[in-house]
Structure formats: C-alpha cells, structure tokens
Design goal:
By secondary structure, this protein is of the alpha+beta class. The chain has nine helices and ten strands. Strands 3-4-5-6 form a four-stranded mixed beta sheet. The protein is globular and about 65 Å long.
Length: 282
C-alpha cells in the first residue's frame, strides 16, 4: 500500500465483513444512480460510436491508430457483443469504488469535464474520474494479467502504452490545473485493488508527444508508429515476422498490415501451439 486511501478502504471492508459497519443508504443510492446513468449512456441512447473526434481518452494513443480512426473508420474490426458489457463493468467498478471512498471518509472531487488547449487552436475535452489530494486520478478495471504486469508500476504502464493511459492522465491534470495523480486499479478477477502513482510522468515530454500525435493523425498519409518484430524460437530467429506487440489490440491491424494472418506458432513443438499474428512467414 502506498496511498493513504488504500488503508482506509481496506479497514472499511474489514469492518463491513466483521459486521462492525454497513454502507449508508445515501451512498448505496448514489452508487445506484451512477450505475443507472452509465446504463443510459451505454444502452439507452443512440451513440454514434464511429464519429471521430479528439478526446482526452484517445490523445495518448498511437497516431497511426488515430489516423485510421479519422480517415477510414470503416476499416476497423467490428466490436464484439461483449464490448458493451466490458464498458459497463468499468462503469460499475468506478461507481462502487467512489462509494467506498465516500464511506471511508476520503474527501474527493468528483468527475468534471475539462478542456486542454493545444497548438493551432486545437481544444481537447474529456471528463476525469476524480481529484484526490489535489491530484487527478483515474479508476481502471483490469484483467488479472494486466493487474499484475501492465499496472505493476508507472514504468510498466508507460512502456508500450498503446491505450494512451499516460497521455490521458497528464492531459486531465494539465487541463484542470491539478497535479498528476495515478491509477486506482481494480482486478476484475478477484476484486483486489491498488494505487499506481504516475508522479514520475514528464509533463512537458508527454504533452509534446500529444501534439506530435495530433499532427500525424491529421496528416494526409499514414505514418506507421511500429514495425514488425522478428520471431525467435529458443533464442534463434526463425525468419518470420510477427505483429509488433503495441499493435496487438489495434482495431486496424489487418488494414494496416494486409499480409497479417493469425496462425499456430510455426516453430512450436507443443501439442496445442499458441496462436501468433504473423506478418511474414518465411
């Protein structure tokens, strides 16, 4: 634990389990109201999800992904039916976590829309999750692997940050005039949670990258951010090229690399080889 609110929430949960405390109906109703708002947003309105615009949630992503999103949204892989459920899980986790903060007597400033002015008159809007101790924090729900590996530290988040989490958080902080906080990460598999500080973020460098990203996203021609990686087997190159790990979750990977094929690992001797995204097979 490295944040004062972590200890407070753990103590609250311990007391509730021991029947020493219970969550107030006021807080429960507040959480329920937030979940209801999320359900209306995800299921109860007609959302034009293909309408491209620069948002705080995407300005930290690779510029090549934004270029496709702006110029050829029709080339994106279709979102599965589970997409809405995934979004709702994140919304529910956020609502409950804020309820726990409230019951643990941790004062925080709730979500607020802010605007980040950039070069050439570009204004990027977004709504941060919360401000705690004058620092902007985000609440993330994560898989067990992501909780243990991606959110192990600020450095592991920043390394290959294909979802743009660092740019998003720095953008919120700059736009709101607050300090950079970090991420409250909840493990969807077992309910564990932790705080990962982003205090090491270099604001000037990140904002410079954001402006460069926007410039490339608005360019006439696509400029790829990543090149294929050489496949190795037992420490030796196989001669095959595989998709860069930063491109793994990109919805435009098949349009960007027209030779991309998902095949069983070509050199594996396993009974059930893992699936690999190949760009070139020798």
């Amino acid at each position: 634990m490295n944040h004062r609110a972590e200890l407070a929430i753990h103590k609250l949960l311990e007391d509730i389990l021991a029947s020493k405390k219970q969550m107030s109906m006021e807080t429960i109703e507040g959480v329920a109201s937030d979940v209801k708002d999320a359900m209306v947003r995800q299921f109860g309105t007609k959302n034009d999800r293909g309408d491209f615009k620069l948002r705080m949630s995407n300005i930290g992503r690779p510029s090549c992904q934004l270029w496709f999103d702006k110029n050829h949204p029709e080339k994106a892989l279709p979102k599965g039916n589970s997409f809405l459920m995934t979004m709702m899980i994140g919304d529910i986790v956020e609502a409950i976590f804020k309820g726990l903060l409230k019951e643990a007597k941790i004062d925080y400033q709730d979500s607020e829309e802010v605007t980040l002015p950039l070069k050439n008159g570009v204004n990027v809007k977004g709504t941060y999750d919360l401000v705690l101790d004058d620092c902007v924090d985000d609440i993330k729900s994560a898989s067990d692997w992501s909780y243990k590996n991606k959110f192990a530290s600020f450095e592991s988040v920043a390394s290959g940050d294909s979802f743009g989490y660092v740019g998003q958080l720095v953008g919120y902080a700059k736009a709101s005039g607050k300090n950079i906080g970090g991420w409250w990460v909840v493990n969807k598999s077992n309910g564990q949670f932790k705080y990962v500080s982003a205090g090491n973020a270099d604001t000037t460098h990140v904002l410079g990258n954001i402006e460069k990203t926007i410039e490339l996203a608005n360019a006439k021609e696509l400029v790829r951010c990543f090149e294929p990686e050489a496949e190795t087997f037992r420490g030796k190159a196989t001669g095959n090229l595989v998709l860069n790990k930063n491109c793994t979750f990109c919805d435009f990977r098949y349009s960007c690399w027209d030779t991309l094929k998902e095949l069983p690992a070509q050199k594996s001797q396993a009974k059930e080889p893992k699936m690999v995204q190949y760009i070139k097979v020798a």
